[in-house]
Amino acid sequence: MGKAGQSLKQVLQSHGVSQYSLAQKLGIERTNVYRWVHEATDPTAESVVDIVLALKELNPAAAKEFVRLYLGTLVEDIKSNQQSQSDSSTFTPPQASMSKRVNINIPNAVYEDLEAWAESEGRTVANLVAFLVETEVRSAKKQGKIQTQNDNKK
Asked: Phi/psi of residue 47, each to 5°?
């Protein structure tokens, strides 16, 4: 399975957080946490967010480490990129960062390539596709290929 389970297992062990206490904080059965930790199933993207928030309440250092282990340097790269862009027009309001669900159809050969790539990085295909789409949309916007309604109001 995936990187989330490996990261979660390491964080719970190193910070002394029990699967039971995390499950209680999440309001779910402990068996769900057990399945994630033992990589029988992967948590959904929404569950990962909930895990971070629950860990933050239980042990803020554990939450930070989970994000670092699961997302690697991606968060630091985004933070440093945001800091280097001191222009206030790059600020993204909180409501703009909410997620939307999109269903797409792709050729089998492309899916198989994505599946191999995702597996090599220890993530799900859906997580990889979401990352790739977001990265490309941000790049296109930065290049001026996309203009949103918020851009027109400036």
From this structure: -65, -35
